[in-house]
Design goal:
By secondary structure, the protein is mostly helical. The protein has a two-stranded antiparallel sheet. Helix 1 crosses helix 2, helix 5 packs across helix 6 and helix 6 packs across helix 7. It is elongated and about 60 Å long. InterPro entries: Homeodomain-like_sf.
Amino acid sequence: MTQQLPVNVNALPMSLVDVAETLGMRVALALIQHFGGLEVKFPVAPKADHPVILALGETDALALCQFLSGNQIYVPHARAPKSVRADVMRMEARGMDRASIARALGVSTRHVRRVANSRDDKRQPDLFSE
């Protein structure tokens, strides 16, 4: 999947500017690429098989975990919004969980939850209201 990612600190989502300024743009972009659209917990002392270590490599992941000190943050996906309503509904009907749907579609779990919880189609008029 090809995606356009920000190339300078000013183009990053505000939540990742500190990460880029402290650990470098490479780490911030890797974080977006691997975890964009998800909420990620950064343990103080991650184990070798932790997803952050596996995705970013030990050196960058340990520095990031130390910087974020056990916090959980939302990692924005940094892409233009797109309509995923039909995909979300189809994937949820097949039994996929919302985190898996978000990862497959490249959107946030918040967006998947919002779409899945709003079953009514905004383009259709309400036939029963006055």
